Amino acid sequence: MYRHKWESDVNMALPVGKAVCVGRNYVAHAKELNNPVPKAPLLFIKPSSALCDFGPETAINLSLGEHHYEAELVLLVGEKIDRSCTDPLNRIAGVGLGLDLTLRALQAELKQKGHPWETAKAFDASGCITPFIPVNKEMLESGLTYQFWQNDTLKQRGDSAHMIFNMARLLTDIAKFFTLYPGDIVMTGTPEGVGALSIDDDLKLQLGQGTVYRSKVVKQSS
Fold first, then answer.
1. Separation between Cα atoms, residue 38 and residue 164, nearest integer Å
2. Which residues partner with 16 through β-bridges?
3. For residues 41 and 22, is the Cβ–Cβ distance under 8 A?
4. Tens digit of pLDDT for each residue in 174-207?
5. How confident is the model at residue 222 (pLDDT cuts 50, 70, 90)?
6. How confident is the model at residue 102 (pLDDT cuts 50, 70, 90)?
7. Smallest Cα–Cα separation from 99: which of 178, 159, 177, 46?
8. 3-state DSSP of the chain
């Protein structure tokens, strides 16, 4: 069962809650999928059952269809953030990275029919999360970068300065609709470069110049 961890490999006391995810928060990513650039954050939720470790193995259920990766900066909520909160960045306890796994063909079908995306975005083990590092408001405001490699080829490079909606704006908008509790996470959107995963792919995620986290794609056992 997934538990939030610090980079020191220590489990933390925070419970595992929901993941509020942000779609189309980088202009180039919206354009690569032929989507309009949003005028307000596009939000959806993954339940806690969707979360798993970005560990030595990333298991995918091939019976569901082709899985696409979307590498994202992930915020860990340390204190309650609701609509009355005026300084949400001060309530973020940690920052990490994650893969928002997506069943792209199913998502396209659902979008075409005007149906919700949950089965394409919120299925079990669709949110692969690295350990977190402690963070403060100044670090978040100074900007964060990250990289994702597939088989040693750099596929995605993210920079919070390039987000359409910055982190403070995202948290404020989210809290208008969904109260964030300690242990909830926010997946802040993916830059351009998304693509399909294959069995035996070697994956790497790195926040800034920090630890490189590695994982191999394997077939999920039945």
1. 9
2. none
3. yes
4. 999 999 999 999 999 999 999 999 999 999 999 9
5. low
6. very high
7. 46
8. CCCCEECCCCECCCCCCCEEEEECCCHHHHHHCCCCCCCCCEEEEECHHHEEECCCEEEECHHHCCEEECEEEEEEECCCECCCCCCHHHHEEEEEEEEECEEHHHHHHHHHHCCCCHHHHCCCCCEEECCEEECCHHHHHHCCEEEEEECCEEEEEEEHHHCCCCHHHHHHHHHHHCCECCCCEEECCCCCCCEECCCCCEEEEEECCCCEEEEEEEECCC
Do the beta carbons of residue 128 and residue 53 sit within 8 Å?
yes
Whether 66 and 103 have beta carbons less than 8 Å apart is answered as: yes
Q: What is the C-alpha separation between 77 and 17, in angstroms, rounded?
A: 10
- Which residue is listed with tokens 């242990």? 183
- pLDDT tens, 111-123? 899 999 899 999 9
List Cβ neighbours of 209 (8 Å cut-off, separation of 6 or more): none
In the predicted model, what is the mean pLDDT of the chain?
Answer: 95
Match 């949110």 to its residue by tokens: 127
What pTM value is reported for the model? 0.96
